[in-house]
Amino acid sequence: MTPTTDLSAATLAGADQPAKEANLALVFRQKEALLADYLAAFAVVYYRQPAERAPAQVQATLHIETADTVFPPATVTLQLADTFTLGEVAAEAASRLPMVLAGVAEELGAAITRCRLSFPAPEAQTPEQTWCVTVAFGTGLDEAPTLGFSCPGSPTAPRETVYLPAHVQAVFAQLSSNPAEPVGYVFFLAEEEVTQLRQFQTVPPQVPEGGPQQLHQLFEQTARAYPNQVALSWLGQHCTYHELNEQADQLAARLQQQGVRVGDFVGLFMAKSVELYVGMLAVLKAGAAYVPLDLSFPADRVTYILGDCGARALLTHHALPAGFDTWPGLVIDLSLPALALPPRVVPAAVGPDSIAYVIYTSGTTGLPKGVLIPHRSICHLVRAEQVLFQPTPQDRVVQGFSVAFDASLEELWLAWGAGGTLVPVPEETMKAPDALPSFLVENQVTIFSTVPTLLSLLPAGIPTLRLLILGGEVCPPELLTKWASRQCRVVNTYGPTEATVVATAADFVPGQRLTIGRPLAGYEVLLLDQLGQLVPLGAAGELCIGGAALAAGYLNRPELSAAKFNTVSELQNGFAGRLYRTGDLARFEIDGNIDFLGRIDTQVKIRGFRVELAEIESLLLQWPGIRNAAVALKEGADGVKKLIAYLILDPNQLLDEKAVRAYLRERLAPYMLPAALVPLTAFPLLTSGKVDRKALPYPVGGAQAPTRELALPRTPLESAIYVAWQKRFDTADLSITDDFFEIGGNSLLASLIISEMRQLPDFQGLSVKEMYTRRTIEALAAAVAAQAAGSSTPPTDAPAAPPLLRASYATRVATAALQLVSIAVFYAVPVLLLNLSLLYRQAIAGWSYPALLAAGAASVLLYVPLACLVVVLMKWLVIGRFQAGEYPLWGFYYFRFWVVKKLVEAAPTQLLSATPFLAVFYRLLGAKIGKNVYLGSTRLLCFDLLTIGDGASVAREAALLGYRVEHDRLIIGPITVGQNGYVGLRAIMEGDTSLGEAAELDDLSVLPAGQQVPAREGWLGSPAQRTRAVAPTPPRATRPAGAGYLVAQALALALMLLVPSGASLPILAIIYEMGERVGAEASLLAMLPLAALYVLLLMGALALTKRLVAGRQADGTLPLHSLAYVRHWVADAVLAQSLALLKSLYATIYTPYWLRLLGAKIGYRAEVSTLNHISADHLTVGAGAFLADSVSVGAPRVQHGVVSITPTVVGPRTFIGNGAVLAGGTVLGMNNLIGALSSAPLVTPPDGTSWVGSPAFLLPNRPVSTSFAPELTFAPPTHLVWARAIIEIFKIILPFTFTFITFAVLYHYCWRHLQYYPFWSSVGVGTGVLVGLIFGFSLLTALLKWVLIGRYKPSEKPLWSSFVWRNELVNSLCESYVYTYWEAPLLGTPFATWFFQLMGSHFGHSVYMDTTEITEFDLAWVADHAVLNNGATIQTHLFEDRVMKMSTLRIGRYATVGTSSVVLYDSVIGPGATLKSLSLLMKGEQLPANTRWQGIPSAFISAG
Fold first, then answer.
1. For position 480, what pLDDT does the model report?
2. Which terminal Cβ of the chain has fewer Cβ within 10 Å, N or C?
3. Longest dimension (CA), the chain
4. Strand 1025-1029's sheet: what is its strand order?
């Protein structure tokens, strides 16, 4: 446990910034440590709840919050075992907490006020039922947190949780004071709780002291007191106490004469008769112990018992059946007269500890075991029951049990201890329950002791009864209602043979809960766990009995006696001495009564699930018409075990099996449902009268559920995976050979299981992809084992590089200040140009309109080369040559790097892509680029370290940046693309990589740092791996760019520059005229309609350019440097300009119409979002298809001087996920899905299949959303179409309106300012005005977000809902205005997160952010020092099935998200973890702290 320090808010507020950051971090870490310790403490208390337990995983959910912020809930899995020490549990909890708090900034973490730790309630029927401990922090860390407890989902808190906060606090204290204490022996009960347990342990009434201490002496005492009272009434034969005592004396003397000595054992093998009871008393008088045997016992069982106890003699009153020939002992047949009158009995020298009788019970080995009952114990029972039941000489006690069952002792001595009459029931009457009531009435029975099974067969109403005693098995309270009355007391008793018949008792009161009551006088009851520790008050524990009535042990079973009869040193409740462990579960009620919960060994296990049979039986007994029920675990001929329910129905009652099953399904977990319901007329019974579960028949017939042979885990790895699958699938019907997807698994379930398993040391490197490629437990375990074996090689002895020091606080502040100044300069440049144009306005006032137009066109055209030259000049001035190496983030070298990066990004290079002019620009920046190189991408940087050989091709969106940021480090490395090499669409080459001559890095592939691709090899995937050898291409020289082509390309470039400017001329003219006529302020009111007009004009100009200049592009191939290519380039440039300038038009209801205008075939109700690239003439999109954000579709392949153009088809209702890549020629059928950041399969996939990854692999069992009606997804009604159309008009034109107002106000302000103030004053103040306007509209965007959306929360929304449209409107303002004018300059600075925080995102300090790909802002949690590299996507939503599914994602401290990687919602990147470039983190996936991952989906990597 971490010590705390008082860090008040005032102290923090007054500290300087470095100290403040350090103090916030300290407070956060201290609270994290406290939460970890409380989690460990609660986990220990929770784990200790079951009395019987095994090593287990426990899963907690943490809900953490500050005064005004609720963190996303997080789950933690901990390993627990009784042998683990507290220190080990605390250490594991501490290692888990960073994942829980991943994404939480230090300032936010320091402000944590409350945490709710919850575990599933032990007997939960629904997931909502939990045990929840609330840890509330004070205002200062010197204040100890306060604990509270609740049970969400339950109407009342269970009794065992009353003291739970105190238990947690007690364990918490011991984490530091006693860390070496094993979990199983930690004492944590509260003092008040122990006091109550001490009170419940026994009862005040005591048995009378003194009196006889031998059982036969008790009888003799009664005989002297009531000599003429009838002691035995048997079939009309009445025997008084005096007569019975005399006959017993005579037989005792005869036994002594025939060699029976003190301490001997004598068997009683007789039916009920006077001789039986005489023999019982005679054996005791002779000083021996009797061994009762039932006539139903088979001969081998009887002979075993006689041999086991070494019986001296066997008393019978009939000839022995066959099978006794081998027993050598003395057989005395009492039906034969004695040969001579024996002398008088000699008083035996026996003491209280001498054995009175031995009862044999069933043993776990299959052989019966003898329980030795001394005189002291049975005499104590007789006296205790005299106190409890108050029998009188007038009572007539029925004797129905076999004397081989210890309950018969209760019947005998209730009568004989009080002078009453014993009335034995003939065996034939006991076997015919219908005859029993009349027997009881005829014999005027007043006391009846029986078992519930027999009682359930009897009609109510025995008018002579005054006392009904139940015992021997669980008694349903419904059974007793009809027996209880004013004249008949009903008592439920409990007691094992080893505690001498009865140990506890409770009177039955209708309407009150039936328990087994309190201990009898002189008995003590404790509830302990498997290690002998007291269980919490109200918790279930093993019922352990102490006191004066315990058995002496088991005959000839010293090991068993030692195991079951323990002598314990003093426990915390004051008990010390000998006790018997019953093997029964029970709990104390609030009044001290004991609630019997069943046998521990009847809590059967079905393939890992523990099931209490009594729970199922109790529910069945509540069904009308079911008189009795018994459930047993039965094994069929196929070896499969199933739960079978056996039922006895009321007369004339039919079983409605369907209704009963439905009733059970509502109340029981699936694994507890009986496989069959079997009605019986009667249950087979043991001698004791209990149900003989072993004799219950296995059901036959065709109604059985189908079964199969299950393969169970064989290794620890298989067992761990088996447990994880079993938990998620909630079934016991699981085999290690089951296919994950065939039994109902899906992508989300795979991520959840894998992430949970990564918390175990053996599975930290397990990838979600493994679940798709190794789909059984067996195969998955083998893969993990192989991975462990492969990583067991010793590390190399290469010296480690010295750690890179972080930039100092002063350096970071200076860098941030320099960045702000640089940003001001960036904003000042357009203001400077505007003021220059205004300054010379008078000079050109007399020019003609053609001259003005020509000058405007010239300025537009000259802007590109001049701007590029300025960037080149500034690059060489600011950084000179890029140098490979590692540099501190936020250091001065980083600042110079950032300035150059911003300048290059601001250069007007987008239209230069795929032209020879881009290579010229990059050569001027220092890149070594050969001849005839095709550059389709502008994602290049670190130019001095970039080498591209002759004839190489770099496809669109490929990234050869040469840098990456990881863990506060800027890492720069060289990149080489060999001659004729090919870098595919959206492929990435990290620093320190090379692509050999004619080698190919395919689409959506990444070459990790340090990797080299040999010549003429094709590599694919993330990370890329060799897939093929590249066949040599026929020698064909690429035609160099001739003068004619270059002129045509330059003209095409000029055209595409002038088209947007031309579309804006009417708007500028209108604005100018309105300013002149109605004033500048009034003209602002026209900006909204003017924005709409500009959109229409630009759309028209681009569409006209496409049709007139580019025409319709044909499929096939064409030379790179040709006029045909220039036309193709114009077609692509039109699309590029529309995507750049009309971005707000995309992802609207109008997008399909626009794309059709450009030549694409778009089906009815298809949805197309903000694409990165499409080839319109070659694209077919089916009806109802959905293309999500950042998709690239159908880009041509340019290689070896040839442009290959092939059509792309997206079938009806097919979904293309965010960032997916469909290469030209892809054909997808109906209802396919291509996942986020994935490529399509190389061949057309079957309809209805889903694919993910690069290369793509099948995604089985994708969960399909059916939450919403088709009217909200695929088939909207007219009113929704109109509503969306209206809202999306504003989505399209509002960003343009903001832009027009911004520059109109700036224009008018600068114009007026220049009239009164100097030029540079106008530039300076105008820069401030521009920044203020952009900032103001950014604030307005944030305000609109909070008004239109509020706070984003995890939820699902259908496509045709206003929430989605409102969300898209806000995103449109962000993407088309805020990100362009406000956020773009700030990326890569400490201020980049400000706007996102304003929108509701949770960012820590010092976050490196080089992306704006965040949409549902409130759902993003990014902690301090995290890194979001260029183009990383924080994907808090997906739109599969036209349902917008949103949830949180969290990125921990110092975690890194690589270039162009995608992080899906419900995922967590742990502190210090790295998701490298072009990787996909699946929904629900978690990356453990300080690990490295790469791939689509991500896979563990050991280095790099």
1. 87
2. C
3. 158
4. 934-935, 953-954, 982-983, 1000-1001, 1017-1020, 1025-1029
Rounded to 10°, the helix 215-225/407-416 angle is 30
- Same domain? 1053 vs 908: no
> Does pLDDT of 11 surpass 80?
no
Using an 8 Å Cβ cutoff, are 1166 and 1183 in contact?
Answer: yes
Q: Which residues contact 531 (CB under 8 A, 6 or more apart)?
A: 82, 184, 185
Amino acid identity for residue 1184 in this structure = G
Q: In this structure, what token pair is assigned to residue 1271?
A: 């009217």
- What's the token pair of residue 1413? 């790909």
Measured CA to CA, the distance from residue 457 to residue 682 in angstroms comes to: 9
| pLDDT exceeds cutoff 50 at 679 | yes
At 819-840, the pLDDT tens digits run 999 999 999 999 999 998 888 7
> Please, are residues 443 and 465 in contact by the beta-carbon 8 Å criterion?
no
pLDDT at position 4? 35
Q: What is the dihedral of CA 1401, 1404, 1408, 1411, to 10 degrees?
A: 0
Burial level of 495, CB count in 10 A (0-12/13-18/19+)?
Answer: buried
Q: Are 1052 and 1018 contained in the same domain?
A: no
* pLDDT for 341: 67
Contact, 268 vs 279, CB < 8 A? yes
Same structural domain, 667 and 726: no
**∠ CA(619), CA(620), CA(625), 5° rounding?**
130
| Owner of token pair 């760019």 | 1041
Grouping H, G, I as helix, E, B as strand and the rest as coil, residue 1084 is helix
Are 900 and 925 within 8 A, CB to CB?
no
Residue 936 placed within a domain? yes
**Per-residue pLDDT, 331:** 92
The DSSP output letter for 671 is G
Task: Please state, as a whole number, how many other Cβ atoms lie within 10 Å of the Cβ of residue 805.
Answer: 9
* 905: Cβ contacts below 8 Å, ≥ 6 apart: 1384
Tokens 């909207």 sit on residue: 1276
Q: Tell me: do 737 and 618 sit in the same domain.
A: no
Looking at 966, 997, 1029, the residue that finishes a domain is 1029
What local confidence, expressed as pLDDT, does residue 802 receive? 53
Contact 65, 1402 (CB under 8 A): no
Place of tokens 């791996």: 1025
Q: Whose CA is closest to 1438, among 1482, 1496, 1500, 1394?
A: 1482
CATH of the domain at 1205: 2.160.10.10
Do 24 and 134 sit in the same domain of this protein? yes
Q: Domain residues for 1064? A: 1039-1141
Q: What is the mean pLDDT of residues 1197-1218?
A: 94
Q: Is residue 1359 part of a domain?
A: no
Number of domains in the chain: 7
266-286 pLDDT, tens per residue? Answer: 999 999 999 999 999 999 999
Token code pair at residue 248: 């017993």
Query: Closest by alpha carbon to 1418, among 1405, 1431, 1435, 1400?
Result: 1400
Final residue in a domain of this structure, among 661, 695, 729: 695
Q: Look at residue 1275 and tell me if it is in a domain.
A: no
The residue length of the chain stands at 1504
Tokens representing residue 900 in the block? 């150059």
pLDDT score recorded for residue 1267: 84
Q: Which two tokens stand for residue 29?
A: 């870490």
- At residue 542, the pLDDT reads 93
86 and 120 fall within a common domain: yes
CB 129 within 8 A of CB 154: yes
Helix (H, G, I), strand (E, B) or coil at 1013: strand
CA-nearest of 100, 102, 161, 92 to 130 is 161
Q: Which amino acid is at 226?
A: Y
Distance CA 1222, CA 1216 (A): 9
Q: What tokens were used for 394?
A: 């007038």
Percent of the chain surpassing pLDDT 90 = 60
Nearest Cα to Cα of residue 937 among 1007, 1012, 989, 880: 989
Structural domain contains residue 802 = no
* Interatomic CA distance for residues 415 and 467, integer angstroms: 13
- Measured distance CA(415)–CA(232) in Å, rounded: 9
